């Protein structure tokens, strides 16, 4: 594949840019490659997405996707990578079902409250575990991830869960917490593959695909092998990490299309220079957008503290909220789509995943600057 890198020379198909939080845009080169390789029938009458998941062709593609992801993230040898059906919310239940072990004194779960999705994860975990709020963000403006001091990890904690990047709130951890012997578990759905990630700091990382990996319906789970030995008696087979690891993520029919596209995305990232290159471009995109907000003389407001701002989900709002709908209408006419903030927090949000090139962010910045001049 010849990549279209996410820099200023990135080729654009059409005039519009989608800033959706997910499902998000895919790289143009990946869409083109998918059309060429996944949706055309071969001499045997089967397109790649129609081949059985038990067959050699799909198993080879799955192995290739796993190898590329391991290489990108430099996953240590004592971790297993699972490609599972469903989304991150499935893992809200699967994590406690797999990691709790009351018979061994591990019946508690610690959760850090950093925003909307961490609370959703915590709410589901309450169905299976005694949940302790290990840390909580202050809730005031500027918003920030929980302080790294004073975390409460009760005796018998099977794990400590964080949401590494809050898609709704636009909050990211600038530094990971140190949870000692308690395995750190992270929902990395909206930040995985946006920058290097030290997998060795975690017991388990999971990420739904529809941000930086591929189509919705696939979730990646990266789990330390010793955690696979926990009994997981409450977990059904498709959500049982140990069973899925033993059967190569094929206990049930995996999301074959999503996996095939994910493999193309991993190849694209490698050919664009890997995660260090992704991080450089992503930080540049985010810095440009946040600078535009901060230098707007208060016309635009970013409520998250600078050190805690997400580079993938930039949350902001207009000081004059009555202009919000007008902003969105005009943006849509300019080809800038899906900028409305999550209903839970309102305002505006621009998601800047890997496949969003700098040209798209530049177009948004030009529009924002012109809008502020007209209405400021």
Short précis:
By secondary structure, this protein is α/β, with parallel strands linked by helices.
Describe the structure in your own words:
This protein folds into two domains: 48-270, Type I PLP-dependent aspartate aminotransferase-like (Major domain) (Aspartate Aminotransferase, domain 2); 274-375, Aspartate Aminotransferase, domain 1 (Alpha-Beta Complex). 32% of the residues lie in helices and 17% in strands. It has nine helices and 14 strands. Strands 2-10-9-8-5-3-4 form a seven-stranded mixed beta sheet. Helix 1 packs across helix 6, helix 2 (56-73) crosses helix 6 and helix 3 (88-99) packs across helix 4 (116-125). It is globular, with a radius of gyration of 21 Å. The model is unreliable at 7-14 (pLDDT under 50).
Provide the residue-averaged pLDDT: 93
What's the helix-strand series?
EHHEHEHEEEEEEEHHHEEHEEH
Helix content: 25-40%
β content, as a range?
A: 15-25%
- First and last CA, distance: 46 Å
What general form does the structure show? globular
CATH architectural designation of the largest domain: 3-Layer(aba) Sandwich
Structural class: alpha/beta
Give the oligomer, counting copies of the same chain as homo and different chains as hetero: single chain
Number of helices: 9
What is the CATH C level class of the largest domain, in words? Alpha Beta
CATH topology label of the largest domain: Aspartate Aminotransferase, domain 2
Radius of gyration: 21 Å
Poorly predicted sequence stretches spanning 5 or more consecutive residues: 7-14
Report strand order across the widest sheet.
Answer: 2-10-9-8-5-3-4
For CATH, the homologous superfamily of the largest domain is named as Type I PLP-dependent aspartate aminotransferase-like (Major domain)
Counting structural domains, the number is 2
Report on the biggest sheet.
7 strands, mixed
Topology, number of strands: 14
């Amino acid at each position: 594949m010849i990549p279209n890198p996410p820099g200023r020379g990135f080729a654009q198909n059409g005039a519009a840019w989608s800033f959706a939080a997910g499902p998000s845009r895919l790289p143009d080169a990946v869409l083109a490659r998918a059309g060429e390789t996944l949706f055309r029938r071969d001499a045997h009458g089967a397109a790649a997405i129609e081949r059985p998941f038990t067959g050699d062709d799909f198993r080879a593609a799955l192995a290739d996707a796993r190898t590329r992801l391991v290489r990108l993230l430099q996953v240590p040898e004592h971790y297993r990578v699972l490609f599972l059906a469903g989304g991150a919310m499935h893992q809200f239940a699967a994590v406690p079902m797999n990691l709790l072990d009351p018979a061994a004194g591990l019946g508690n779960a610690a959760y850090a409250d950093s925003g909307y999705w961490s609370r959703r994860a915590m709410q589901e975990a309450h169905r299976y575990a005694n949940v302790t709020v290990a840390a909580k963000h202050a809730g005031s403006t500027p918003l920030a991830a929980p302080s790294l001091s004073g975390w409460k990890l009760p005796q018998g904690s099977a794990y400590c869960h964080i949401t590494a990047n809050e898609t709704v709130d636009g909050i990211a951890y600038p530094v990971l917490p140190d949870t000692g012997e308690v395995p750190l578990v992270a929902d990395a759905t909206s930040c995985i593959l946006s920058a290097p990630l030290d997998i060795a700091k975690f017991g388990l990382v999971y990420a739904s695909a529809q941000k930086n990996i591929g189509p919705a319906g696939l979730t990646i789970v990266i789990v330390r092998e010793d955690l696979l030995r926990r009994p997981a008696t409450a977990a059904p087979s498709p959500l049982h990490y140990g069973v899925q690891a033993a059967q190569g993520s094929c206990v049930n029919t995996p999301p074959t299309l999503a996996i095939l596209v994910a493999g193309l995305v991993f190849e694209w990232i490698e050919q664009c220079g890997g995660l260090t290159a992704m991080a450089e471009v992503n930080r540049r995109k985010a810095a440009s957008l946040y600078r535009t907000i901060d230098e707007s003389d208060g016309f635009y407001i970013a409520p998250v503290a600078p050190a805690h701002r997400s580079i993938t989900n930039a949350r902001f709002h207009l000081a004059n909220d009555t202009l919000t709908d007008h902003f969105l209408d005009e943006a849509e006419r300019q080809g800038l789509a899906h900028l409305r903030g999550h209903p839970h927090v309102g305002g505006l949000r621009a998601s800047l995943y890997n496949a969003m090139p700098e040209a798209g962010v530049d177009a948004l910045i030009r529009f924002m600057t012109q809008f502020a001049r007209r209405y400021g």
